[in-house]
């Protein structure tokens, strides 16, 4: 309470007046009696040294008496709404009835310039985002620095209860316009453009002081902030900007090789160039097929099952396990994701399966007439991820007339037989004793873990003996014969006769002078030396011993006729 014995209350900007005891403070200031009168004083700017700057009025202080024993109230009004900075403080000085100094209270407003909101919103792909535009007030907030408690004035009164501070409040928004290329535009809507591509539309809702962003359905990311100008009820305008982030739920299609399970992670992304974050585990994720939701679904292609889709609801992982023999793309599958707020988003997933082609070979072999030959099927995988081997689960099999055969032995009349060990791929060829030549190769099939086949051809060559009593006719190269019925486990191929066996030429014997016959092993030139009168003409060398035998008989017959 202000004591009744106190006299004038003075409002001043100059603290030095308080300590000038030779000055009549109440005369230089303004006397307030016990009535309800008030004093007004210009508020000035303050320099860097904390001194008032003359003739720089930016507002008005008002000191109002509340009457006897009720104290006074100080208020401040900013008259220059463009000003932003410190205000020279006001001092309220109290004198007693003898006009002696008793004490003072210091007041200094802190100016807070009006500030428009710069909203930033986050929303889901395809969903509207609303930004509320507001302006904070630019009215002062009054602060007070009190005297030391030893001052007589403060020993008798509590000035904090005698002074009321004016509380801040928002400035009304009278209008909003888009700010484009440095000027305001009266357009109600504006296209959102990013990298020369339209990514949505902005609209102004003046009734609610809102700017609304409707993103394009496929856009995910962060557009450039849209600038606007807001007009306040204080008569001033404020520039601001509205920034947005469009969140999307992403599921990448996958690509892998035959027989390998593929996985893709559902993630929330805020920009295509940034990694997404996993979904919250309480977001429901389901396959949708014919209106039904499930965590597991058969993958189909043209109505046929080609694999299995599965969802891990705890991680948001979608997996596709293709059938081992499937190659290509299954039909797309629809996945529904429900956010924590209940919003639903449908995604589509379509994996691609590339073929894995193993290869196989059998080393060709060469052997003597009547000797067995052995080789082995070798298989090479088309990928490190798919095992290729020959064992009991992946046996080697003969292919006869384009069909895989379970026979482990094939016999070809007039040529020989092939024996195959299915679990090792070892193949043995045993030629008929009289056969020599190069028959058509036999085909053998092997498979990898995907049951993808690889076919190798086994080619053999049979060399005839250097000396043979009766050479057998060579079979047609490339003629594999005709398959006939045979006991289980063996296939017989009937080899057609391509030529008749040659018979040795018989010469008539002369009883008058028989000539001894040379043995097949005896060189022909020795026979010629035993014939009297025979010339020494060199005969052409022939590989066939039977041919030499026939020539020798003819020569002996001619000599006998001359005698």
Automatic annotation (TrEMBL):
Protein name in the entry: CshA domain-containing protein
Boundaries of every CshA domain copy: 252-353, 356-462
Any Pfam family hit: CshA_repeat
InterPro entries xref list: CshA_fibril
Superkingdom, taxonomy of origin: Bacteria
Originating species: Limosilactobacillus vaginalis
Segments of this protein annotated with the region Disordered: 491-530
UniProt feature, compositional bias: Low complexity: 494-514
């Amino acid at each position: 309470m202000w004591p009744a014995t106190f006299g004038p209350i003075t409002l001043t900007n100059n603290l030095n007046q308080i300590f000038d005891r030779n000055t009549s403070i109440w005369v230089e200031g303004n006397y307030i009696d016990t009535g309800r009168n008030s004093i007004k004083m210009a508020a000035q700017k303050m320099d860097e040294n904390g001194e008032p700057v003359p003739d720089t009025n930016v507002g008005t202080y008002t000191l109002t008496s509340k009457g006897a024993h009720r104290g006074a109230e100080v208020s401040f009004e900013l008259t220059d709404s463009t000003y932003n900075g410190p205000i020279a403080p006001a001092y309220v000085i109290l004198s007693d009835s003898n006009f002696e100094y008793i004490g003072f209270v210091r007041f200094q407003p802190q100016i807070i310039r009006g500030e428009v909101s710069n909203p930033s919103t986050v929303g889901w792909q395809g969903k509207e985002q609303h930004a509320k535009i507001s302006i904070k007030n630019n009215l002062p907030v009054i602060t007070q620095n009190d005297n030391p408690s030893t001052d007589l004035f403060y020993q008798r009164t509590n000035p904090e209860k005698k002074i009321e501070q004016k509380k801040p409040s928002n400035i009304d928004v009278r209008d909003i316009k888009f700010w484009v290329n440095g000027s305001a535009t009266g357009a109600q809507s504006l296209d959102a453009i990013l990298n020369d591509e339209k990514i949505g539309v902005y609209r102004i809702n003046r009734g609610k002081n809102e700017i609304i962003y409707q993103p394009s359905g496929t856009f995910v990311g962060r557009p450039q902030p849209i600038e606007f100008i807001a007009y306040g009820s204080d008569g001033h305008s404020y520039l601001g900007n509205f920034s947005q982030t469009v969140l999307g739920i992403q599921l990448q299609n996958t690509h892998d090789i035959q027989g390998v399970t593929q996985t893709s992670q559902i993630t929330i992304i805020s920009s295509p160039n940034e990694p997404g974050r996993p979904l919250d585990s309480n977001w429901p994720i389901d396959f949708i097929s014919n209106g039904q939701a499930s965590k597991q679904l058969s993958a189909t292609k043209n109505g046929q099952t080609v694999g299995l889709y599965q969802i891990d609801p705890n991680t948001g992982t979608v997996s596709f396990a293709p059938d081992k023999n499937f190659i290509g793309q299954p039909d797309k599958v629809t996945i529904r994701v429900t956010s924590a707020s209940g919003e639903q988003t449908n995604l589509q997933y379509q994996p691609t399966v590339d073929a894995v082609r193993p290869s196989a070979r059998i080393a060709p072999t060469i052997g003597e007439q009547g000797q067995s030959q052995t080789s082995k099927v070798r298989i090479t995988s088309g990928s490190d991820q798919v095992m290729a081997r020959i064992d009991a689960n992946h046996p080697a099999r003969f292919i006869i007339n384009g069909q895989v055969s379970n026979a482990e032995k094939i016999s070809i009349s007039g040529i020989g037989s092939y024996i195959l060990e299915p679990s090792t791929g070892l193949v043995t060829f045993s030629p008929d004793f009289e056969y020599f030549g190069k028959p058509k190769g036999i085909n053998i099939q092997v498979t990898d873990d995907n049951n993808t086949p690889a076919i190798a051809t086994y080619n053999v060559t049979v060399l005839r003996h250097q000396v043979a009593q009766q050479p057998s006719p060579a079979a047609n190269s490339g003629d594999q014969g005709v398959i006939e019925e045979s006991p289980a486990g063996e296939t017989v191929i009937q080899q057609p006769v391509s030529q008749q066996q040659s018979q040795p030429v018989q010469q008539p014997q002369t009883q008058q002078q028989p000539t001894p016959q040379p043995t097949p092993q005896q060189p022909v030139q020795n026979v010629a030396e035993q014939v009297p009168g025979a010339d020494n003409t060199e005969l052409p060398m022939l590989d066939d011993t039977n041919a030499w035998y026939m020539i020798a008989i003819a020569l002996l017959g001619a000599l006998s006729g001359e005698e």
